[in-house]
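Researcher: We're teaching a course module on how sequence relates to structure. For the next exercise, students receive a sequence and then see the predicted structure as tokens, so they can try to spot secondary structure elements on their own. Here is the exercise chain.
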Amino acid sequence: MKGRGLILLFQYLFVKNKLGRMKQKYLINNIILLTIILSFLFVGNTVLAQNLLEVKGRLSFKESGSSARDAKVSLYVNGTFIQSVTTDRSGRFKIDLELNKDYIFEFANDGYVTKKININTEVPENAQDKAFTPIYFAVDLFKQYEGVNTVVFTQPVGLIKYYKQIGDFDYDTDYSTEMRNKIDKAEKELEQAHKDYLEQQRQEAIAQKQQEIAAQKAAEEAARLKKIEEEKAAAEARRLAAEQKKIQEEQEKERIRKQQEEEAERRRQEEAARKEAERLEKERIAEQQRLEAEERARLKAEEEARKKAALEAKLKAEEEARKAAAEEAARIEAEKKAQLLAQQQAEAEKRRKEEEARLEAERLEKERIAEQQRLEAEERAKKEAEEIARLKAAEEARKKAEADSLKKVAEEKAQREAEERAQLLAQEQAEAEKRRKEEDARIEAERLEKERIAEQQRLEAEERAKKEAEEVARLKAAEEARKKAEADSLKKIAEEKAQQEAEAYERQMAQLEAEAEQRRKEEDARKALQEEQHLAKLAEEKRLAEERHKEEDARLALEEEQRLAKQAEEKRLADERKKQEEADRIQAEIEQQELLRKDIEERKAKALAEKLRKQNDLYKSAQKAADELNEVKKDYPKGKTVEEFDKFGMHITRIIMIDNEVVRIFLKVEHDWGNVYYFRNNQSISKDLYTVETERI
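Model: And here is the predicted structure for the students to work with:
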């Protein structure tokens, strides 16, 4: 702070003397006054050290803003390493430097770009025992990324040395200005690389989440299909077991029937032997009884055939109705699932499109602002360099003209002296000596005046450079604060969105599980009904078979076997058709989803292109309206002028501020649909910065 105070004191003295030619006596008085003030300053300062230069610093990480704890600070003297210091938990360090040496401070940390600062402690002999103001600086370390050129950081980013004009150490502004442009470019590349790295991490996390969701859905679908197959296999096993049990029962019945037939045959033979004598007598009665029995058997067979046909028709109708109802329920369920899936995919795609379009617009706007700021900075640097070169050339031309004039005068005087030397040698020698002294005094006075003017110009240039650097730093800090606020807001929105999506996904999964449970219960009920019907049918068939057992047991057994074989074959064919239809349906759903995905991607690309085109059109319209009015800015007075007009569907408020030949034009563009944009010299700015800048005057 005291070093800066000395600079301001020097500037005050030089500006005060600029109004007239400085007299030597007045300069001596000012120097005496300055010496007295400096004496009081140095005597009253208890923190200054003699014969040593105290250096304090603080290291921090640029991306996170946190302190660089336990970072390494290496110190080199004339290219030779002498010591290493580790920063404390606040990232701070302190080192005392000896005078008359050239030091290099190297700041390093794993994974970060190394930076250097050069401090030259060489001082004049008369300043060896002075006390110097401690030097303090802060260093930000950037993360190292592949593909970013950091060669510029192999050179010191700053140079601090002793200035005899202020009697203390300070930054070499010429060196800092030259390095600043190179460092800014490298830092921008590092910041962009950090943003790209964060974006890549975010995209990878999103992709990983999507893969996990897809894998979970696939696993659930596979489990569902596996469960269906297991249930089908269990039903088939139960059916086969029932058929095997029935075959065994039929075989047992056949054995009993044969045994009974054999027993009956034996009894018949015995009875035939006994009744042989009675056969002729009872032949008519037997014949009549036979005819009656045949009639009854025929009527009974016809009744049983009718009942059997009616029962089969009833069972067939019930089976067809059940199949139709199951197919209709499956179709309705599939349609509901397809509609729900399409709706969810459309909503997710819509949200993703809106988010991508917004991020893309923000990125384009930031790139445009950064490019415009870079061009303006380059233009200012170019103009300042041209102005310095012009002033330097004019000063050299003036010095050369003065030197030529002095040389010509000296030659004329020498010629006159040679002509008059013979007559007035003694007088001329005295007068020549007097004129020489006067000329030396005049030349010395002019030289001092020139040095004063050059020093004043240098100090003014340094002050301008410092003010510009402070302004750039202030704007940069404001921009970083705004970006951080935007990043925090985007992060909060992304977290809320992820939470909402997770809740929606959980609700959807719960609904799907409930539907699956409902379908399982319905399938169990249907299977139970089928089992009951099947058992009832078997019981009825058994009853009918037992009634027909005595007369047509063999024929009915054969027909039953044929019927069962035919039924098994029909069921097998029906199961195969059902499996094929299920496979065809799944394939059709996959193809439909693929077509839907392609259509969504095409519409997303078209919407993004259309949105970017509209944003460019809006910016061009605002730019055109502002350019048409820029031609008249020279006619405005100093101060603040406010104009409002409507054009191209926009209400534009233009504020012209003229201050010390500096013209700033602010635009507030209000569109019909409600959006409002702010610009300063054709550069987009925030509403807060617009309000602060326009209310300053």
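Model: If you want an answer key for the exercise: The mean pLDDT is 77. The chain is about 70% helix and 15% strand.
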